[in-house]
Structure to design on (161 residues):
């Protein structure tokens, strides 16, 4: 059984790992040193911070008390937008699941959990970015996300909460 909880400070190492997995989502792609990837400012700004500011929602999926996935959001400012930016005050979502637990609905449920928390915090919409060739785009559409634009090789998708 998988359970979902808010992230705690002691989850930061796992959240760094999940940020790496979200950034390098292709299973067949080369796997560079995670610390080098996470040192890139464009990736580092996505590392979740439990208890962060407005729009910072971080949920951990656990199976048997062991973390197997994370879903998170962050509201980026207009002067330094994220990849899935649609407007200031619209949190951008990300999700990652450890390889052994993928394709079991955990990522979709993590997104539902983050969206529900965003609604409780008073946000009206959430967004995300997904590469055109990422199969997860089908899951996002099933969850109510729609294309709001594109940026190079990715869709920017948005969903009302």
């Amino acid at each position: 059984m998988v359970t979902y909880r808010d992230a705690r400070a002691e989850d930061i190492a796992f959240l760094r790992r999940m940020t790496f997995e979200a950034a390098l989502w292709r299973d067949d792609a080369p796997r560079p040193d995670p610390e080098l990837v996470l040192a890139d400012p464009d990736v580092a700004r996505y590392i979740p911070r439990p208890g962060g500011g407005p729009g910072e929602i971080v949920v951990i999926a656990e199976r048997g008390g062991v973390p197997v996935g994370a879903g998170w959001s962050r509201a980026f400012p207009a002067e330094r937008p994220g990849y899935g930016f649609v407007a200031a005050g619209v949190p951008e979502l990300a999700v990652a699941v450890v390889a052994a637990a993928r394709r079991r609905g955990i990522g979709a449920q993590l997104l539902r959990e983050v969206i529900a928390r965003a609604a409780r915090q008073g946000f009206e919409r959430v967004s995300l970015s997904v590469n055109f060739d990422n199969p997860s785009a089908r899951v996002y559409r099933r969850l109510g996300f729609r294309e709001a634009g594109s940026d190079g090789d990715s869709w920017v998708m948005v969903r009302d909460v």
Summary: The CA atoms of residues 82 and 91 lie 10 Å apart. The two ends are 27 Å apart (CA to CA).
